Amino acid sequence: SSVTFPGNTLADDGWPAADRADIEKAEAFLNGIDTYRARFTQVAWDGGYSHGWLWLERPHYLRVEYAPPDNLLLVADGNLLIFFDRDIDQVSQFQYDTGPFRFLLSKEINFSRDMIVNAIQRHAGLLRIKLVEESDPGQGFVTLVFEETPMRLVKWEVTDSENKTTQVTLYEHTFGLPLERKLFRFTGHDRLRHDYRYGTYE
After folding, report:
1. CB 66 within 8 A of CB 86
2. What is the per-residue pLDDT across 107-135, written as a single tens digit (0 to 9) for each?
3. What is the DSSP string of the chain?
C-alpha cells in the first residue's frame, strides 16, 4: 500500500501529485471506453453468490444480466436505469445519477465532481480508489479496483451505511466490439418473454 509523506508535491485538490496522476489515469481509462463486455461474479455481504454478463456502450448504455437461477436484469436504455426482478415481476426505474453505476454512465467521468476521493491505495499491481458521496458521506461508499498493467477496471465494491459490502469482479474483458441495440432495450415484450437473456451460460 502507498504511503504519503509530508512535503510531497500537492495537486490543487490536496492530493499528492502521484495520487492525482493515478486518479486522472483511472478517469482517462473509463472515459476512453467506447464499447465493453465482460463476465462478472458478485458476492453479497451475506455470502450470496451470483454471476452473469455486463455490456457497456459509453456513455449512456449498460446491461447487467444475471445467470440462472438469478432472474435479475439491469438495463440503462439511454434515459433511465431499469431494474427487473422476474421472480416477482417487478420493474423499478432510477435516474442515472443514482447508485454505483454513475461512474460508468457519466458523459465525462470526473471522480471529484459530485463525489469525494476518500482514499487511494496501491498494492500488488492494483490501484484502489475509494469514493464517497459529497452530499451524504454517511450513506456508504464505492471502491473501484484497477489493474495497472494493462489499465482496466477489475472490481468494484459497494459498502452501504451499515458497512455491508457487495463485491463485483470483472473478467474476460473485451473492448471495442460492436454491440446490438437490443442489449440496451427493455420493453413490455422483453418483460414477458422467458428467453430474455443474451449471454451464454453453461
Report:
1. no
2. 898 887 767 888 999 999 999 999 987 77
3. -----TTS-B-TTSSBHHHHHHHHHHHHHHHT-SEEEEEEEEE-TTS-EEEEEEEEETTTEEEEEEPTT--EEEEEESS-EEEEEGGGTEEEEE-TTSSTTHHHH-SS--HHHHEEEEEEEEETTEEEEEEEESS-GGGEEEEEEEEETTEEEEEEEEEETT--EEEEEEEEEEES----GGGG---HHHHH-S----S---
Render pLDDT for 18-51 as a digit per residue (tens, 0 to 9): 899 999 999 999 999 999 999 999 999 999 999 9
Do the beta carbons of residue 94 and residue 78 sit within 8 Å? no
Question: Binning pLDDT at 50, 70 and 90, where does residue 12 land?
Answer: low
Q: Exposed/middle/buried for 82, CB within 10 Å: 0-12, 13-18, 19+?
A: buried
Contact 109, 103 (CB under 8 A): yes
Question: Which residue, chain included where needed, has cell 465532481?
Answer: 113
Contact (Cβ atoms closer than 8 angstroms) between residue 128 and residue 165: no
Residue with cell 443474451: 198
150 residue type, one letter: P
